[in-house]
Write a structure and sequence with these properties.
Blueprint (H helix, E strand, L loop, with lengths): L16 E3 L5 E3 L5 H15 L2 H20 L4 H28 L6 H11 L1 H4 L13 H7 L5 H4 L7
Antiparallel strand pairs: 1-2
Helix pairs in contact: 1-2, 1-4, 2-3, 3-4
C-alpha cells in the first residue's frame, strides 16, 4: 500500500495477483490458499487431528499438480488444472463439508474449515485462469525485502 502500481491498459490480458494489507487480493480476486492451509496446519500441529491431516494431504496433492505444471504456458496449466485439480477440489470440498458436520461449531478445526468453505470460489479461482498461481506466497516472499513507509518509521521512532 502506498507504492505506485504501473499503469495497466484497458485492453491488457495479463493478470495481476497481489495481496494488500487488508488480506484481500486485488484485481484478479484470487485469494491465496496459504491462509486456508495455515489454519488447518495449526490445528494439526496442536492436536494431531486425523481430519486435519487428511485435509492437508488433499491440499498437498493440489500443490503437487502445480509443481508439475510450473513454468508451462498458461493454456497447458489450465488444461492440467481442469483435468486433475478440479476433481481433487470437488472431493476436498465434499470432505470439508462432511467433516464440518461432525465437528463442534466452536472447535478450531471447524473454524478453519468454515474459513475455507466461505472463501471457496476465491480459493479455486486459479483453476479457471492458467496465468494465476495457486497462491501468492512467492510474491509475498519477494515483497518482504521491499521497504515500506510502515517498516521505515516504527512506532518508537522519534521522527
Amino acid at each position: 500500500m502506498g507504492l505506485p502500481l504501473p499503469r495497466i491498459s484497458a485492453g491488457t490480458t495479463n493478470a495481476l495477483q497481489i495481496k494488500l494489507d487488508s488480506g484481500q487480493c486485488a484485481l484478479c480476486r484470487a485469494r491465496h490458499k496459504a491462509h486456508a492451509r495455515r489454519g488447518i496446519y495449526e490445528v494439526w500441529i496442536a492436536q494431531k487431528s486425523p481430519i486435519a491431516q487428511a485435509i492437508l494431504e488433499r491440499i498437498k496433492a493440489l500443490y503437487a499438480i502445480e509443481d508439475a505444471v510450473r513454468g508451462q504456458p498458461a493454456a497447458q496449466r489450465l488444461a492440467a488444472r481442469q483435468a486433475h485439480s478440479i476433481p481433487k477440489l470437488t472431493e476436498l470440498k465434499r470432505y470439508l463439508e462432511t467433516a464440518l458436520s461432525s465437528l463442534s461449531r466452536k472447535c478450531a478445526l471447524a473454524k478453519a474449515i468454515r474459513y475455507c468453505l466461505v472463501r471457496w470460489p476465491a480459493l479455486t479461482r486459479y483453476t479457471s485462469d492458467g496465468r494465476l498461481e495457486i497462491d501468492n506466497s512467492a510474491a509475498e516472499r519477494a515483497l518482504r525485502t521491499v521497504p515500506t513507509e510502515r517498516s521505515l518509521c516504527t512506532s518508537y521512532s522519534s521522527v
